[in-house]
Amino acid sequence: MTFEKFGKSFRDIADLKTSFFEDNGKWLERALKYAAIYTAQPRRTHCKICNAPLPGTPSFVKHTIPYVICTRCSHLNGMHEDSDAFCEAVYTSDEGKDYAEAYSSADAAAYVRRRERIYEPKARFLLDVLRHENKDPAALRYADMGAGAGYFVAALQELGLTQVAGYEVGQAQVALGNWMMPSAPLSLIGLKDTLGLCREIPADVMTFIGVFEHLQNPREILGAVRSNPAVRYVYICVPMFAPTIYNEMVFPQVMPRQLAVGHTHLFTDASIRNMEAEFGLERVGAWWFGTDMMDYHRSVLVSLAQTPGQAGMIEPWREQFEDILDDLQLVIDKKRKSSQIHAVFKVRR
């Protein structure tokens, strides 16, 4: 039976996301810059997840990017490729400093806050699922792929796990994470190294937290993971084709979080099920919670601030909506329509 969980309060992270509210112009400009780079890449002809041929006509266009829904698995695909040039521009140019800006912390105290509020809940969920599977988490080995600045690695260590390593392509993030963690558990790898590592790393649990959607070759990665006899569980957190997309479409002057920059495609429950069936994955844990309502809240606040004569409504809106935000989000989460899913899979061979 799948271990399933719903909901998480926005208050846990609200003060960590203030820049998205206060610096909308900067983040929107950044999103549009990468949209221009992405649309200059070759056309995508096959679904990112099931590899079926894609329709040639877009389902919709957002910030100049055409998107199409796969007719086989319902995965939402951007209609251009995540080429080497695009991935290098997003993740590794200037040592990855631009990409790291959205996820980094200014000092040690901020690093700890981010680890505690965002990543330790993710780590606890993984451990809860493993215990539900009658596994001792402390006896297992963990490899975090696309570890960034090591927040998830640090969270696992904070919960008492010692056999933990992280692998990351951004030099600036590896340097920050290893400075924050005395054990220096992060290794710098090249963009092309991930596939070989997934085949060979002696890890019982392989994690991709906010990473799987950024991979150029998710199908090859899943094949490599399945061919690695050591890997028994895979943990992913991925963005979903969810109601928040429509929010982004009707507020085009607000910085998009769900479908922007490195998010060139979005999952559906059906596309994940297709992935499970093809690559021998059994879903043993799922945590549905999203930021749909927080993103709607942000969109209204930013729009009020941008509109002459409406700034006086910012605080009344904040007072009214924040009181009901979690309740509204939980309705979406329990319908499994949230903007992201955390899922743990057992690897079947």
UniProtKB/TrEMBL annotation:
Methyltransferase as UniProt keyword: yes
Record keywords: Methyltransferase, Transferase
InterPro entries associated with the record: SAM-dependent_MTases_sf (IPR029063)
Pfam families xrefs: Methyltransf_23
Q: Which GO terms describe its molecular function?
A: methyltransferase activity
Which Gene3D superfamilies does this one have? Vaccinia Virus protein VP39
Query: Does the keyword section mention Methyltransferase?
Result: yes
Q: Which GO terms describe its biological process?
A: methylation
Name of this chain's protein: Class I SAM-dependent methyltransferase
Organism, scientific name: Blastochloris sulfoviridis
